Amino acid sequence: MTITGIAVGGDGVGKLSDGRVVFVPRTVPGDRIRLRPDSLQRHRNFARADVGEVVTAGPGRVTPPCPHYVSDHCGGCQLQHVAYDEQLKAKRAIVGDTLRRIGKLKVEDPEVVEALEEWRYRSKISMDVKSSVGFHPYDRPNFVFPLADCHITDFRLMALWRELRSRLVMLPQPLTRLTLRLDRDGRRHIIAESAGEPWLRAEELRRAIQQDSELICWWQPVDGAARVVAGPATGFPATAFEQVNPGMGMITRRWAVEQLGDVRSQTVWDLYGGIGDTAALLVERGATVVSVDADEKAVSWGRSRLPAVRFIAARAEDVLPSLPVPHAVVVNPPRGGLHWDVSLRLQSEPVPKLVYISCDPATLARDLQRLNVNYIVKDVRAFDLFPQTAHVETVAVLEAA
Asked: What pairs with residue 330 in β-bridges?
């Protein structure tokens, strides 16, 4: 068969002889392939299969540089085998098709802002722990292969991982998850999650890694709050959400805020505002900002940085009735999209301008369809925060109808 496109999630798309759509990982548009017969899984309206042989390679196929991608079928990336220009084309088409198909919107495929860096951009890496510490293969989700290097993660975190690999016994046991993170000042954080005793050897580990006097160790009990157990307590909430591609995250937020126009002396809601990065840009433009997020650590950090912003630690849907009437709203919800009560409030009491920052085109499309009653979509732009993966950030600009 011939692969004709790339679907949400990164799989190539073709058709079986019976007309059924089939999704095939690690393929590119233009590939002529033979399926591996024992891999074919037929469902009512579609099928899934793996490549048996690439008979003729499509023009966008390249050799993936990461050995894990090939030999271990690493599921962390989905598009390393696709040339970067083709990745951008695929993401543009995915966003446009999703908005039309799910959102029933009459929009063209959006412009895609390409990444500042195609590799080594991630400021955070999280690894699962079974018999090894690493990632899951895309075709064996219950297995974890040992990680040597992640080509999309910052060199500084990979250098830390090389130091840690021979010292895993110093981490709390039984270890269930390990996260390495860079903060915005370049300090490195280890967040060790375990279900057992507290992390008692954290200071010993810091001394063993002598080249980094500012290494900060966090212990995350499985059912409890994370806390610093060794290293300087900077106040930075290492467990709070923050874009893993900081440079592109700033470009995305800045463009989103610019679409609001003049907000001087106007009240702007920043819903799902996290540590306040969007709020900071709004304050720069003279707005009176109310930022809401359910993560208390993120809100506490935001308050310490931005005293001019009114931060509220709560779920957005719980506090909307108590907030001052806004002139504009920015929403940046998690992958699940807007809570129904938030959508309902924005529907029933439309604001002049609404900007929606989304990490999932499908939930964005669903929410835009709900809001379509009282809003007009004025612009959509995608931002490639996640090269080599199928993920894409999208910003939709809405105005009251």
From this structure: 270, 355
